[in-house]
Amino acid sequence: MQLFARFIFAVVALVIVMPNQVLATGPRVTTSLFSPHHNQIHALDFPPFVSSEVVDGGVISEIITEAMRRSDVDAVVTTHPVERMVYYYLLQESAMAAAGWHFEFTKAQREKLIFVPVVSLSERYYYYRPNHPQGLNVEDGTDLKGLRYGAHHGEEKSHFSEAGAEIVYGRTISLLKKMQRGEVDFICAPPRSVEWLLERYMKDDKANVIAMPKEAEAQVFYMVFNRQHPLAEATAEKFRAALNAMEKDGTIAKISNKHFGANGAGKLFLRPLDTIK
Predict the structure, then answer these.
(1) DSSP H or E run through 267
(2) Does 48 sit behind a cis peptide bond, omega within 30 degrees of 0 on the bond before it?
(3) 235 close to 72: Cβ distance less than 8 angstroms
(4) Which residues contact 16 (CB under 8 A, 6 or more apart)?
(5) Residues 6+ away with beta carbon under 8 Å from 38
(6) Which long-range contacts does 34-37 make (Cβ < 8 Å, 24+ apart)?
(7) Rounded to 5 degrees, what are φ and ψ at 19?
(8) pTM for the full predicted model
(9) Three-state SS annotation for 185-226
(10) pLDDT tens digits along 92-147
(11) Whether residue 180 has pLDDT greater than 90
(12) DSSP bridge pairs for 79
């Protein structure tokens, strides 16, 4: 009986001293509560660029981490399996920053945020050959009636819907699977990401996923700083300066070569920062 009473007392005491953020409602699947770093940069898992499944968190994660180190800010990139968790931590818990692409913010939300471009990601259109044995080319995009386009949330897709395509949403791997099942006809994604995902999840069928000839419009991967965080504005400026210095001293190229080799693979997605708006 005394042992049971001691157990109850210990549980009550733990609840009393537990920090409020542990008890708060909302999506909590993250390592942030248990990280030794003071600040979390929240990002959607996006292999091979930002992912716990890739060495050093991926090429973009390593670039961000080094730029934050040069900015004298103790921070770590924390990846999440679903996009809404990134929005939750950035907007509801006033995290210092998030990182990603195809963000979807309201006008009011954007006014509270600072966007710093990190890299530009080249993209290609893809289709599944068994479903289109005669080939498929949508690059002129004038008449897409009867076709279904697999889009990422936040992606600009008005061009496709205006041309008559039905829009189906998902993450890159789910869109590849939908394309394989015939639920979408074509998608647009960074070649490095598609190659990584096909090798990992669709290896026996990767030869049937065909890239269309021309590159699509490049997309920008951003660091998004939250003005509600006391360090955000100063850190954003330091981070921007650090990225520029890393580009000039060859650090970004070195990190890219580490992940993709020195045979020009990095040029598939990197371009000068001063050309990114």
Answers:
(1) none
(2) yes
(3) no
(4) none
(5) 74, 75
(6) 35/76, 35/78, 37/74, 37/75, 37/76
(7) -65, 150
(8) 0.81
(9) CEEEECHHHHHHHHHHHCHHHHHHEEEEEEEEEEEEEEEEEE
(10) 999 999 999 999 999 999 999 999 999 999 899 999 999 999 999 887 777 899 99
(11) yes
(12) 43
User: Parallel, antiparallel, or unpaired: how do β-strands 113-128 and 166-169 relate?
Assistant: unpaired
Task: Compute, in degrees rounded to 10, the torsion defined by CA atoms 228, 233, 235, 238.
Answer: 170
Enclosing H/E stretch for 244 = helix 232-248
**Domains defined along the chain, listed by start:** 17-121+219-275 (3.40.190.10), 122-218 (3.40.190.10)
Strand order in the sheet with 186-189: 75-80, 39-44, 97-100, 209-226, 113-128, 186-189, 148-151, 166-169
Euclidean distance between CA atoms 255 and 55, whole angstroms: 12
Evaluate the CA torsion angle 66, 240, 53, 124 in order and state its sign: negative
- For 99-113, b/e burial (b = at least 16 CB within 10 A) is bbbbbebeeeeeeeb
Strand 209-226, strand 113-128: pairing:
antiparallel
Q: Which amino acid is at 89?
A: Y
pLDDT digits (tens, 9 = 90+) for 10-43: 544 444 444 443 344 444 444 444 445 578 999 9
Residue 72 bridge partners (DSSP): none
Cα 57 to Cα 76: distance, rounded to the nearest angstrom? 10
